[in-house]
Protein backbone atom coordinates (compact mmCIF):
# COMPACT_ATOMS: atom_id res chain seq x y z
CA UNK A 1 0.00 0.00 0.00
CA UNK A 2 2.82 2.35 0.95
CA UNK A 3 4.64 1.73 -2.36
CA UNK A 4 1.38 2.29 -4.21
CA UNK A 5 1.04 5.72 -2.56
CA UNK A 6 4.66 6.57 -3.36
CA UNK A 7 4.16 5.73 -7.03
CA UNK A 8 0.96 7.78 -7.13
CA UNK A 9 2.94 10.71 -5.71
CA UNK A 10 5.62 10.21 -8.40
CA UNK A 11 2.95 10.15 -11.11
CA UNK A 12 1.49 13.43 -9.81
CA UNK A 13 4.97 15.04 -9.86
CA UNK A 14 5.60 13.89 -13.46
CA UNK A 15 2.31 15.44 -14.63
CA UNK A 16 2.90 18.66 -12.69
CA UNK A 17 6.47 18.97 -14.06
CA UNK A 18 5.17 18.20 -17.59
CA UNK A 19 7.78 15.52 -18.16
CA UNK A 20 10.04 12.84 -16.69
CA UNK A 21 13.29 14.83 -16.90
CA UNK A 22 11.98 17.89 -15.01
CA UNK A 23 10.30 15.69 -12.37
CA UNK A 24 13.43 13.53 -11.97
CA UNK A 25 15.61 16.63 -11.53
CA UNK A 26 13.18 18.16 -9.01
CA UNK A 27 13.10 14.97 -6.94
CA UNK A 28 16.76 14.10 -7.28
CA UNK A 29 16.21 10.67 -8.80
CA UNK A 30 17.35 9.01 -12.04
CA UNK A 31 15.13 9.60 -15.06
CA UNK A 32 15.22 5.87 -15.87
CA UNK A 33 14.11 4.92 -12.33
CA UNK A 34 11.19 7.34 -12.51
CA UNK A 35 10.15 6.06 -15.94
CA UNK A 36 10.32 2.44 -14.71
CA UNK A 37 8.22 3.19 -11.60
CA UNK A 38 5.47 4.85 -13.66
CA UNK A 39 5.60 1.89 -16.10
CA UNK A 40 5.09 -0.50 -13.15
CA UNK A 41 2.16 1.60 -11.92
CA UNK A 42 0.54 1.40 -15.36
CA UNK A 43 1.09 -2.37 -15.40
CA UNK A 44 -0.47 -2.68 -11.94
CA UNK A 45 -3.53 -0.66 -12.96
CA UNK A 46 -3.74 -2.28 -16.40
CA UNK A 47 -4.19 1.05 -18.19
CA UNK A 48 -1.85 3.42 -19.99
CA UNK A 49 -1.72 6.72 -18.13
CA UNK A 50 0.70 8.71 -20.30
CA UNK A 51 1.43 9.12 -24.03
CA UNK A 52 5.19 9.45 -24.17
CA UNK A 53 6.80 11.40 -27.04
CA UNK A 54 10.39 12.52 -27.33
CA UNK A 55 9.71 16.07 -26.21
CA UNK A 56 6.72 15.91 -23.86
CA UNK A 57 4.15 13.73 -22.15
CA UNK A 58 0.41 13.82 -22.57
CA UNK A 59 -2.20 12.30 -20.29
CA UNK A 60 -4.45 9.61 -21.68
CA UNK A 61 -8.14 9.86 -20.83
CA UNK A 62 -7.61 7.32 -18.00
CA UNK A 63 -4.50 9.26 -16.96
CA UNK A 64 -6.49 12.49 -16.64
CA UNK A 65 -9.10 10.87 -14.35
CA UNK A 66 -6.39 9.09 -12.36
CA UNK A 67 -4.33 12.29 -11.98
CA UNK A 68 -7.26 14.22 -10.51
CA UNK A 69 -7.94 11.47 -7.97
CA UNK A 70 -4.26 10.90 -7.16
CA UNK A 71 -3.57 14.58 -6.64
CA UNK A 72 -6.35 14.74 -4.05
CA UNK A 73 -5.15 11.57 -2.27
CA UNK A 74 -1.50 12.68 -2.22
CA UNK A 75 -2.49 16.13 -0.91
CA UNK A 76 -4.65 14.50 1.78
CA UNK A 77 -1.77 12.23 2.82
CA UNK A 78 0.60 15.21 3.04
CA UNK A 79 -1.96 17.17 5.04
CA UNK A 80 -2.48 14.23 7.40
CA UNK A 81 1.28 14.12 8.09
CA UNK A 82 1.41 17.87 8.70
CA UNK A 83 -1.58 17.73 11.04
CA UNK A 84 -0.03 14.84 12.95
CA UNK A 85 3.09 16.98 13.35
CA UNK A 86 0.90 19.76 14.81
CA UNK A 87 -0.87 17.28 17.09
CA UNK A 88 2.42 16.00 18.46
CA UNK A 89 3.68 19.49 19.25
CA UNK A 90 0.28 20.78 20.43
CA UNK A 91 -2.01 17.80 21.07
CA UNK A 92 -5.76 18.29 21.30
CA UNK A 93 -8.92 16.27 21.89
CA UNK A 94 -10.59 14.74 24.94
CA UNK A 95 -8.34 12.81 27.33
CA UNK A 96 -10.42 10.19 29.14
CA UNK A 97 -8.64 8.90 32.23
CA UNK A 98 -9.51 6.74 35.24
CA UNK A 99 -7.74 7.96 38.39
CA UNK A 100 -7.48 6.56 41.95
CA UNK A 101 -9.77 8.80 44.03
CA UNK A 102 -7.54 9.94 46.91
CA UNK A 103 -4.25 9.90 45.06
CA UNK A 104 -6.00 11.87 42.31
CA UNK A 105 -7.49 14.52 44.61
CA UNK A 106 -4.50 14.94 46.94
CA UNK A 107 -1.53 14.43 44.70
CA UNK A 108 -2.43 14.45 41.01
CA UNK A 109 -4.70 17.52 41.04
CA UNK A 110 -1.85 20.12 41.08
CA UNK A 111 0.04 18.14 38.40
CA UNK A 112 -3.10 17.98 36.24
CA UNK A 113 -3.50 21.76 36.60
CA UNK A 114 0.08 22.20 35.40
CA UNK A 115 -0.46 19.81 32.48
CA UNK A 116 -3.72 21.56 31.48
CA UNK A 117 -1.88 24.90 31.32
CA UNK A 118 0.84 23.37 29.12
CA UNK A 119 -1.67 21.90 26.63
CA UNK A 120 -4.68 24.24 26.22
CA UNK A 121 -5.99 22.16 23.28
CA UNK A 122 -6.78 19.13 25.49
CA UNK A 123 -10.07 18.76 27.36
CA UNK A 124 -10.45 16.27 30.21
CA UNK A 125 -12.94 13.59 31.18
CA UNK A 126 -11.87 12.03 34.49
CA UNK A 127 -13.47 9.07 36.24
CA UNK A 128 -12.58 8.89 39.93
CA UNK A 129 -14.21 5.71 41.16
CA UNK A 130 -12.64 2.90 43.19
CA UNK A 131 -13.68 0.33 40.56
CA UNK A 132 -11.16 -0.90 38.02
CA UNK A 133 -12.50 0.33 34.69
CA UNK A 134 -12.32 -2.02 31.70
CA UNK A 135 -9.95 -0.35 29.24
CA UNK A 136 -10.92 -2.78 26.49
CA UNK A 137 -14.69 -2.25 26.49
CA UNK A 138 -14.89 1.29 27.93
CA UNK A 139 -13.73 4.44 26.12
CA UNK A 140 -10.77 5.30 28.38
CA UNK A 141 -7.40 6.39 27.01
CA UNK A 142 -5.50 5.59 30.20
CA UNK A 143 -5.99 4.39 33.80
CA UNK A 144 -3.63 5.35 36.61
CA UNK A 145 -3.39 2.48 39.10
CA UNK A 146 -1.58 1.87 42.38
CA UNK A 147 -0.33 -1.53 43.51
CA UNK A 148 0.79 -4.61 41.67
CA UNK A 149 -0.33 -4.63 38.04
CA UNK A 150 -2.70 -7.55 37.51
CA UNK A 151 -1.63 -9.96 34.80
CA UNK A 152 -3.67 -8.98 31.77
CA UNK A 153 -3.57 -8.02 28.11
CA UNK A 154 -3.04 -4.36 29.08
CA UNK A 155 0.18 -2.39 28.68
CA UNK A 156 1.53 -1.24 32.07
CA UNK A 157 3.94 1.70 32.09
CA UNK A 158 5.62 2.28 35.49
CA UNK A 159 5.39 5.91 36.65
CA UNK A 160 6.71 5.87 40.21
CA UNK A 161 6.87 3.97 43.48
CA UNK A 162 5.29 5.13 46.75
CA UNK A 163 6.36 3.93 50.18
CA UNK A 164 3.68 3.66 52.90
CA UNK A 165 4.50 4.95 56.41
CA UNK A 166 2.64 4.84 59.73
CA UNK A 167 0.56 7.84 60.80
CA UNK A 168 -1.80 8.73 63.63
CA UNK A 169 -3.52 11.85 64.97
CA UNK A 170 -2.18 13.69 68.02
CA UNK A 171 -5.58 13.03 69.70
CA UNK A 172 -5.36 9.25 69.16
CA UNK A 173 -1.78 9.16 70.48
CA UNK A 174 -2.66 11.26 73.55
CA UNK A 175 -5.45 8.82 74.39
CA UNK A 176 -3.80 5.49 73.49
CA UNK A 177 -0.08 6.06 73.69
CA UNK A 178 2.45 5.78 70.87
CA UNK A 179 3.73 2.36 69.69
CA UNK A 180 7.50 2.11 69.35
CA UNK A 181 7.86 -1.28 67.66
CA UNK A 182 5.78 -3.39 65.21
CA UNK A 183 4.53 -5.92 67.80
CA UNK A 184 2.89 -3.10 69.80
CA UNK A 185 0.58 -2.32 66.86
CA UNK A 186 -1.40 -5.44 67.81
CA UNK A 187 -2.70 -3.57 70.87
CA UNK A 188 -3.84 -0.58 68.77
CA UNK A 189 -6.78 0.32 66.54
CA UNK A 190 -5.42 -0.01 62.99
CA UNK A 191 -7.43 1.27 60.05
CA UNK A 192 -6.85 -0.73 56.90
CA UNK A 193 -8.59 -1.64 53.67
CA UNK A 194 -11.14 -4.45 54.06
CA UNK A 195 -9.76 -6.03 57.24
CA UNK A 196 -6.30 -6.58 55.79
CA UNK A 197 -5.46 -8.78 58.79
CA UNK A 198 -1.74 -8.07 58.70
CA UNK A 199 0.75 -5.40 57.70
CA UNK A 200 4.24 -6.24 56.45
CA UNK A 201 6.76 -3.71 57.75
CA UNK A 202 10.44 -3.22 56.89
CA UNK A 203 13.24 -1.26 58.54
CA UNK A 204 15.89 -1.67 55.83
CA UNK A 205 17.44 -4.75 57.46
CA UNK A 206 14.50 -7.02 58.27
CA UNK A 207 10.84 -7.49 57.54
CA UNK A 208 8.07 -8.49 59.90
CA UNK A 209 4.37 -9.27 59.51
CA UNK A 210 2.13 -7.79 62.20
CA UNK A 211 -1.46 -8.85 62.93
CA UNK A 212 -3.58 -5.71 62.87
CA UNK A 213 -7.24 -5.15 63.47
CA UNK A 214 -9.81 -2.72 64.70
CA UNK A 215 -13.46 -1.87 64.76
CA UNK A 216 -13.66 -0.60 61.18
CA UNK A 217 -13.52 -2.48 57.89
CA UNK A 218 -13.57 -0.06 54.95
CA UNK A 219 -13.03 -0.06 51.22
CA UNK A 220 -12.27 3.66 50.90
CA UNK A 221 -8.82 5.17 51.42
CA UNK A 222 -10.47 8.59 51.80
CA UNK A 223 -12.69 7.37 54.64
CA UNK A 224 -9.75 5.66 56.38
CA UNK A 225 -7.74 8.87 56.13
CA UNK A 226 -10.65 10.94 57.47
CA UNK A 227 -11.31 8.59 60.41
CA UNK A 228 -7.63 8.64 61.34
CA UNK A 229 -7.81 12.47 61.64
CA UNK A 230 -10.85 11.96 63.92
CA UNK A 231 -8.64 10.04 66.40
CA UNK A 232 -9.98 6.58 65.49
CA UNK A 233 -6.79 4.70 64.61
CA UNK A 234 -3.38 4.28 63.01
CA UNK A 235 -2.97 4.16 59.22
CA UNK A 236 -0.28 2.74 56.91
CA UNK A 237 -0.26 4.96 53.81
CA UNK A 238 2.05 6.69 51.33
CA UNK A 239 2.93 10.24 52.34
CA UNK A 240 1.60 11.45 48.96
CA UNK A 241 -1.95 10.53 50.05
CA UNK A 242 -1.86 12.15 53.51
CA UNK A 243 0.22 15.20 52.53
CA UNK A 244 -2.53 17.70 53.42
CA UNK A 245 -3.20 16.13 56.83
CA UNK A 246 0.53 16.14 57.65
CA UNK A 247 0.90 19.76 56.59
CA UNK A 248 -2.04 20.82 58.80
CA UNK A 249 -0.86 18.74 61.78
CA UNK A 250 -3.97 16.54 61.80
CA UNK A 251 -1.71 13.48 61.41
CA UNK A 252 1.89 12.84 62.29
CA UNK A 253 4.32 10.09 61.43
CA UNK A 254 5.04 7.43 64.06
CA UNK A 255 7.66 4.64 64.26
CA UNK A 256 9.74 6.50 61.63
CA UNK A 257 12.28 3.70 61.06
CA UNK A 258 9.54 1.32 59.84
CA UNK A 259 7.75 1.43 56.48
CA UNK A 260 5.39 -0.68 54.41
CA UNK A 261 6.07 -2.47 51.12
CA UNK A 262 6.54 0.09 48.30
CA UNK A 263 3.54 0.43 45.97
CA UNK A 264 4.18 0.87 42.25
CA UNK A 265 2.13 3.45 40.32
CA UNK A 266 1.28 2.49 36.72
CA UNK A 267 -0.29 4.07 33.67
CA UNK A 268 -2.36 1.31 32.05
CA UNK A 269 -3.37 1.46 28.39
CA UNK A 270 -5.01 -1.00 26.08
CA UNK A 271 -2.53 -0.49 23.25
CA UNK A 272 1.05 0.60 22.62
CA UNK A 273 -0.09 2.95 19.83
CA UNK A 274 -1.14 6.04 21.74
CA UNK A 275 -2.50 9.36 20.48
CA UNK A 276 -0.30 12.36 21.25
CA UNK A 277 -2.58 13.62 24.09
CA UNK A 278 -2.18 10.30 25.99
CA UNK A 279 1.56 10.03 25.28
CA UNK A 280 2.15 13.55 26.61
CA UNK A 281 0.07 12.90 29.76
CA UNK A 282 1.95 9.69 30.61
CA UNK A 283 5.36 11.27 29.91
CA UNK A 284 4.46 14.30 32.03
CA UNK A 285 3.32 12.18 35.01
CA UNK A 286 6.37 9.92 34.75
CA UNK A 287 8.68 12.93 34.86
CA UNK A 288 6.87 14.63 37.75
CA UNK A 289 6.14 11.53 39.86
CA UNK A 290 9.60 10.11 39.31
CA UNK A 291 11.27 13.11 40.92
Question: Can you give a write-up of this model?
Answer:
The protein is an alpha/beta fold. It has three domains: 2-87, Winged helix-like DNA-binding domain superfamily/Winged helix DNA-binding domain (Arc Repressor Mutant, subunit A); 93-160 and 264-289, D-Maltodextrin-Binding Protein, domain 2 (3-Layer(aba) Sandwich), CATH 3.40.190.10; 164-261, D-Maltodextrin-Binding Protein, domain 2. Helices cover 42% and strands 23% of the residues. It is built from nine helices and 15 strands. Strands 4-3-5-15-6 form a five-stranded mixed beta sheet, covered by helices on one side. Strands 11-8-12-7-13 form a five-stranded mixed beta sheet. A three-stranded antiparallel beta sheet has the order 10-9-14, with no helix packed on it. Helix 5 links the parallel strand 3 (93-98) and strand 4. The longest helix is centred in the N-terminal third of the chain and has 29 residues, at 61-89. The two termini are 44 Å apart.
Amino acid sequence: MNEYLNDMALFVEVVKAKGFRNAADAMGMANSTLSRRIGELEKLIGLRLLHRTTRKIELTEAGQVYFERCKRIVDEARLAHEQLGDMLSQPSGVLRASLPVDFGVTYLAPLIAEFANLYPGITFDFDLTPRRVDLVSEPFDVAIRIGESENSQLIARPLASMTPHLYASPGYLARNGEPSKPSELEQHECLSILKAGSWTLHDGKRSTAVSVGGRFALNSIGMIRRLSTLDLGIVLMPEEIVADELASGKLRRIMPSWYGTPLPVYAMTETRLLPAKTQRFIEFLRERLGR
